[in-house]
Write a structure and sequence with these properties.
single chain; alpha+beta; Eukaryotic RPB6 RNA polymerase subunit; four-stranded antiparallel sheet; 2 helices; about 30% helix; globular
Length: about 90
């Protein structure tokens, strides 16, 4: 079972082939994923049941960390925490 703290993030590091890594907010990462989904010739099967582009991107964000955009070429995203979570006593 994954650690629920990973869901308490608000930034992602994104990697594109041949580009420098960048840090994006959750909203920016969703928009970045939507742009990549729009460029695909065919949508991955696990996204076909999602009715909107935003829902497709949200599903990717929640369930995966890479998307194949061409044969052997992927884009990747990883949740990061900029500041440590606050501890409650």
């Amino acid at each position: 079972m994954s650690d629920p703290l990973i869901r308490q993030n608000d930034h992602y590091i994104v990697l594109e082939h041949g580009e420098k890594e960048i840090i994006l907010s959750t909203q920016e990462t969703l928009e970045w994923l939507m742009q990549w989904i729009n460029k695909l010739e065919s949508i991955p099967k696990d996204l076909e049941d999602q009715p909107t582009l935003k829902e497709k991107a949200q599903r990717l964000l929640e369930t995966a960390c890479e998307l194949q955009i061409d044969s052997g070429i992927t884009v990747q995203w990883f949740a990061i925490r900029i500041k440590p979570p606050t501890k409650t006593i």
